[in-house]
Each structure stands twice: as C-alpha cells, then as structure tokens.
Structure prediction request, 96 residues.
Amino acid sequence: MLPATSQAQQSAQLAPKGPTVQAAAVGFRATGAKVDATTKSTAAPIVSRHQGQDVALMAVGVGAMVAGALIGDTAGTIILIGGAGMALFGLYHYLE
Prediction:
C-alpha cells in the first residue's frame, strides 16, 4: 500500500540547513511572474522646473557667506548670516 493512498502521515520535505545561495542573493527576484515585453511602460513626465533660479540663489548665498567671512566684524557677520539664509532658501526650493 502506498503512503499517499492510505492517508498516512507523511514526513514533510526537510528544508536545507545553513546559508543558501538563494538566501544570500540581494535584489529583486522574478520567479513566478513573467514579464510581457509587448506592454508599454509609461514613465512619469518630466516636470519643467525653474531650477536655474534656485541654483543661482544658492551660489550667490555661498558667495555672500565667503564675502562676509572675509569682511569680518559686525558687518561681515550680518552679510554672512544673510548669505546663509539666501543659500538655504535656494536649497529649500531646489529640493522641493
């Protein structure tokens, strides 16, 4: 009599012990799903942003910081802080 037909308890298939190549693999695995090459994937449209102005704000702000550091004293500190604010404002809009 066969074990499958007699409805007897069957031993489960033992999983491999220790590290395996499949467990060490990093990244995506496409095991069961098949990719259909005929489907078209549409990329998100590139948003036209005015990044030139943001980059200019950052550059002028860093320039003002350097100028403020070279000037020194109270006036230089005010220019340095204003340049830092301008550079951070440009960076904020650039990353937005």
